[in-house]
Design goal:
With 155 residues, the protein is mainly alpha-helical. It has one domain. It has six helices and no strands. Helix 4 crosses helix 5.
Length: 155
């Protein structure tokens, strides 16, 4: 198992890649599902403003900024989880292990975010996207985490 210090260092690159991949997928799928790329991102701010945050379809400081920051923070959190659970194996074995680690971490994120936390703390994507788009976005996060884990080995 990686040390906390090394896992934290490696989670910066890993989390940035995961958050960017998830954010891009959420925007693309949100536009397809609800006509607004920002609606599911803004919906994440329901943590602060309630479910009506999902009705905001354009960029606003009170909705878009928290939505982006919360999703980025979640990406960093799940990157740390990946690095602590699978980081050493990814460092030793490379791409196949990174892909499995990304998929396992995304699956764990789904279970935690949609079955264990209170509704108010869920990501909010489900308020503006289909279940299929939700799964695709989590898959994109997993792929981003895998790529980030591989890239973090170089820093």
């Amino acid at each position: 198992m990686k040390s906390w210090e090394r896992a934290l260092q490696d989670s910066v690159v890993t989390g940035a890649a995961g958050a960017l991949a998830a954010g891009a997928a959420v925007a693309l799928r949100g536009r397809r599902d609800s006509g607004s790329a920002l609606a599911p991102i803004n919906a994440t701010s329901h943590v602060l403003w309630g479910d009506e945050a999902a009705d905001v379809e354009h960029a606003t400081l009170p909705h878009t900024l928290p939505g982006v920051l919360i999703n980025a923070g979640a990406g960093m959190w799940w990157a740390l989880v990946l690095q602590m659970l699978f980081g050493e194996a990814v460092d030793r074995r490379g791409l196949p292990t990174a892909m499995l680690a990304g998929a396992a971490t995304a699956a764990l994120a789904y279970v935690v975010d949609y079955h264990l936390v209170p509704k108010r703390l869920m990501p909010g994507w489900e308020l503006r996207m289909t279940r299929r788009s939700l799964y695709a976005s989590l898959g994109a996060m997993g792929a981003g985490l895998a790529l980030g884990a591989l890239l973090s080995r170089r820093f």
